[in-house]
Amino acid sequence: RLSVTLQSIGDGVITTDVHGKTVFINRAAEQLTGWENVDAVGKASDEIFRIFDEKTGEKAPCPVARILRAGKRLALSRDAVLQPKDGTKISIADSGAPIRDRENQVIGVVIIFRDITQEIKMEQERGKIRKLESVGVLAGGIAHDFNNLLSAILGNIELASSGITEDSRVSSLLADAQKATERATKLTYQLLTFSKGGEPIKEKTSLPDLVSESANFVLHGSLVSCEFSFADDLWMILADSGQISQVIQNIILNAKDAMPSGGRIRVECSNVKDLASGLLLRRHKENFVRIALQDTGVGIPRDIIDNIFDPYFTTKKEGNGLGLAICHSIIKKHGGHITV
Q1: InterPro entries recorded for this chain (predicted)?
Q2: 2-115 shares its CATH topology with 199-340
Q3: Among 117, 169, 195, 311, whose Cα sits 20 to 30 Å from the Cα of 68?
Q4: Is residue 330 within 8 Å of residue 247, measured between CB atoms?
């Protein structure tokens, strides 16, 4: 009866003897570790339950030994990642306790663990959304007023320029001031993407033309080529074509900048028919289309990959750190998801 109960629960369960040898693993543990019970029995528990520190990447100490020393239930590290047989990494929450016989003598250890990878990603996603919302509050409060001030400045610059000859030094300075003001105006429109004024105006849209035109516009005259792959039965999407075009252009521009000596970009559009395989889409019942972009650049360093959607985060000397943050905001307002 106990065996049936352990096999039925959703959390992984591993039991060991006092020497750390595996005695039993349930079905959930088999799925998470990649080991079958028949093969795991008798092996050292740290061979089956291989955990590492997520931050340092170093192998974590054997939890069985810790529990035996403590002689009581322990909640293990929140930063633990499990490495199954196939070498992948799974974020887990785990705890363990000594197993005692009727005489209260410790005869082994039980470890209970579960996959929290999805929970962590959801929490990270909520954190990104909170950051974007805070920028939205700022943008909604100042962007309109700031844009009115820029319009007044731009109007006066144009008025002053009309009374000056083109070969004058003052004319050159006014031209520079006009360009700077126009760049600032463009920045205020980017900020408005985060505010209520940036809500998408959705209509049925075909992706192939929209995606290819947006990408080719950015890559025109560059050393970077782009190839496209569209599913024959690709669904139409309900979207703001201007905003989706902005997303494609921002991502393609980043890819192009990462390949100054040239390279290739591949864009693939397909229908998402299995929402269970779509990250963070499981709670939705709608149909989704996936746009996957891949380039031959150097890639994004692991130590900054969690920050790339943060407002004002940039690795470019002349970047404002809003490109990918805007992409994230637009996709979220369309009810979708964006990840790297």
Answers
A1: HATPase_C_sf, HATPase_dom, His_kinase_dom, HisK_dim/P_dom, HisK_dim/P_sf, PAC, PAS, PAS-assoc_C
A2: no
A3: 117
A4: yes
Estimate the crossing angle of helix 323-333 against helix 241-257, to 10 degrees: 150
Q: Name the one residue in this structure whose structure tokens are 């080991």.
A: 35
Cα 307 → chain centroid: 9
Q: Where are the domains of the chain?
A: 2-115, 118-195, 199-340
CATH superfamily of 2-115: PAS domain (3.30.450.20)
Topology (CATH) of 199-340: Heat Shock Protein 90 (3.30.565)
